[in-house]
Each structure stands twice: as structure tokens, then as C-alpha cells.
Amino acid sequence: MAPRPDTDAETAARICAGIGLRHEIIEQTDDRYGDERRKNLLTGYFADEHVQTMPIVRWLRDHDIEVTWDGIAGDIFSCGVYDSEEFVSAFQGNDLRPFVENELGEEGYLASMLKPEALRRWPRAVAEERLMRELARYRDLPNPVAPYFFLNRVRRKLALSPFGMLNQGTHVLCPYLDHDLFDSLINLPLAYFRGRQFHSEAIDAFYPELPHLPYTSVHEGFVPERRDRIMRFALAFGRTAMGGDARVPGWRPSVHRRQLLARLTKAALSSEYGTRMPLMFSRLVVLTDLEAAIEGGSPL
Question: What is the DSSP string of 65-113?
Fold first, then answer.
């Protein structure tokens, strides 16, 4: 991910110090675009996230790590990160449209960056209809939010990190997916998770030697990315998205070159915009890679 100020590293350091574990920070790569493309291949072009995991994939391989841990689904089942009265009310009400709009978000730059034929091929209305149909399945559950996010966001997207990337020669253990724990947590009512203290209190009870920590990161300010990394991403992505792929003769991506060039130029001039550029363009990178694969391009 783009550099961002949070307290993840500090909290992890305190936890490791409290239970006698070594804490090591793994730096992101200089070749963000190359990692995006390698991530797309490992995840089958199903995710615009997880590029930040690529340095960990290499670290596990280089250190011959046989077993590792992943806390997938812990934020949903024990922290209630998505649980809110607003979400529950949307599920239990008669109109799911506001929730659908919130889930899909705004179109952002996609409407202007994609060519008309691409927008006709992937209309928003299709996504809205499928999401409405999926949401209706959870309406009658005591706490519909947790199973909805687990069976969709976690299972379809987040699981690609431990089970598509980190498991390249390493066995990944996922404690929150233990059958007994899963069955217990998924049936708890929303009231257990108000204030998001259930997760922290459980850890404090099991590890009394640890300092009581706020396990939710704080995000403040802005940390700029290095200029050479910004330029490397912009140039590499620009060559592919504007000039096609040499491995696929005659193919051109579904991206407006003029619109893309304007944004890549802005990234070169603005440190803040350039820092956010890889994250903003991750969907376009997945799209262009998927198009090239469909057209017959060999992977990487």
C-alpha cells in the first residue's frame, strides 16, 4: 500500500516485546508495478488489493519458513469491524439500495478512464443487481453483517492473500477459521461487539503479561512516497496501458490514453497525488492484466 501513517508497527513491536518475540519490519519493493502484476497472477486477477503482501511472500521464501499465521476474519468475528447499527438497519429494512450504494462506492475515475465499449461491457447496473440479490440472503439472521462480509469480502477477496500468495511453499495457519471458534463467533449478536472491545478484552484475558493496547490503528497526516518509486510506477504502467502489450499483437487496453496521461503527469508533479496513485490505479492494473491474459498474453 502507499505509505500511510498508522500505529500498526508500534503496536506490533509492543506485543512482540511483551511475549518475547522478535519484531521485524519488511520494506516495500521499489518496483510497485511489477509487484502488482505478480500479485494479479497469484490471485487469478480477482483482487485489486494485497500488493503489500508481495515482499512478505519473498521473505517467507528466502527464509524457508515452513509455517506462518494469518489473522484473516478476526476483525469481523471478534472485533466487529463492519458491525454498525446503520448496516444492521439496512439489512433488516425494506430498502437495501443505500447499503448497495455504500458498498459499491462512487465510480470515481473509472467512468472517465475507461472507453465507452468497456463501460457497456461492465455496467454498474449488473453489479447492483447481483449485490441486491446477495444481501437479501442474510436479512433474517440475528447479525447479518458478519456472515455477509465473511462469505463475500473475506472468502472472495481477502482469502486470496493467505491461500493464493503466502502459501507458496509455506503452510498458513488461520486460527479464526477454526470450526468451533468460527461457529461460536459468527452466531454472537451485534451487542457483543459495540465499542469493538470484545477482541481486546479476549487478548487481555489470555495474555495478562501484555500491556493493554488499543488494537485499532490511528491514521493521521500524510507520508510521501519516494519520488523514484512514483516515477517507476507511472512509467511502467503508462507503457503498458497506453502502448499495449508486446506479447499480444494488436491488443490495446480499454483505457483512455489521454485521461491516463493527464493523471500520470499529475502524479509526477504532485507528491501527495503520486503517493496515492498505485492504490487508486490498482483496479486499472488488474483490468489491463486480465485483458492481456484473455487476449492470449503469457503471464509476466
Answer: --EEE--TTHHHHTS-TT--HHHHHHHHSS--HHHHHHHH---TTHHHH
Between residues 245 and 143, the one the model is more confident about: 143
Tell me if residue 172 falls in helix, strand or coil: strand
d(CA 54, CA 248): 26
CA distances from residue 14 to 21, 22, 28 in whole angstroms, order as listed: 10, 11, 22
Report the percentage of the chain scoring pLDDT > 70.
90
Grid cell for residue 159: 482469502
Q: Is pLDDT above 70 for 245? A: no
Instruction: Quote the pLDDT of residue 244.
Output: 64
Q: Tell me the CA distances in angstroms from 163 to 34, 62, 108, 172, one per residue in order.
A: 21, 18, 30, 8
- Which residue, among 248, 240, 239, 252, has the nearest Cα to 115 in the 3D structure? 252
235 φ/ψ angles, rounded to the nearest 5 degrees: -70, -45
Q: Taking Cα atoms as reference points, which of 226, 257, 263 lies closest to residue 240?
A: 257
pTM: 0.85
Residue range 185-194, pLDDT digits in tens: 887 877 777 7
Give Cα 208 to chain centroid, integer Å. Answer: 32
**Inter-helix orientation angle 282-294/32-42, to 10°:** 60
Cα dist from 106 to 102, 109, 174, 246, 267, whole Å: 8, 9, 33, 33, 21
